[in-house]
Amino acid sequence: MSAALFYSGPTVLELLDRELLQPEIITRLAENYLAAPWLHTYTLGFGLVVDVAAAIEAYPLARPILASSLVSPRVKRSTLRTAILLARPQKEGAPLKNAA
Question: What's the CA gap between 66 and 58, in Å, rounded?
Fold first, then answer.
């Protein structure tokens, strides 16, 4: 498999560590997704977007936690933030291939 098939750039967490993103962006993105889960792609800035639905699929714990009615909103938000932090954003306009 060609390395060009998947964007292997930094994760969202790595962008935070490099201080290229502010933590508030991740919190806002998680809140926006919880309010409108049918919107999958969100802009992070610097021409990067993240597909939150793909990030959820790539993080094995996320889907059952987010689907459970027994889990508190706080835990759902935290799980969603973790999935987003592990995602690898794509360049805006590029086909989204893989979240993590």
Answer: 13
